[in-house]
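ESCALATION

Customer reports they have been waiting on this structure for their group meeting. Please prioritize. Original submission:
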Amino acid sequence: MSKIENKSAVNRFSDLLKISWVKSSIIFGIAIIAIGLLILFLLRFFNISSTQLFFDAKAFVAEYGLIGIFFATILAGTLLPLGSPALVAAAALFGVPLLPLILVATTGFTIGMMINYGLAYRLGRPYVMKKVSTEKLEEIMRLWGRWGWVLYTIFGLIPVLPVELLSFICGLLKTRLDHFLILSFAPRLIVFMILAYFGEHASIWIGIV
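Update from on-call: job pushed to the front of the queue and completed.
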């Protein structure tokens, strides 16, 4: 890639970050990360992991965590603000096995995205406009025109960005289903893998295992 092309890509990305709802999503995500890290430090400092309540909670999550994660990530994929990345990290923190956790969470989230895609595909623009404001829809359509699947991949790899919105656009535009499924599954597989391993190492750091 030439210097001109690199500069153009950087400029396009900086333009993306100037959009109000993208900026708000990033700020909100940073705030959630800060709160999560604070909770980890408090757990370590107060040695909460040695209490009976914590052991009971860990046992419950270990027993029923995968089922809960599966349904929660389906709902998270359909625009409900359930924070699936945080759920995956928390489940790993409480000892849910990593490989099943990653696969179940990724599959659940992809199913949620497929629901969005299918509804937008069948019901069209009137349905999508009930989920997304006219101004935001037009803005997303412009972004899609400039970036296409690159935009979808970027949103999929950055947990704080609302990739769920783009699943409606994919359905509305009747994009190729195979591309949609691959680019819904693969980026979230990477994200959930990183978060699951972070949760596992965090559990060791605060003394849960």
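Sent to customer with the following note: The chain has one domain: 23-206.
Escalation resolved.
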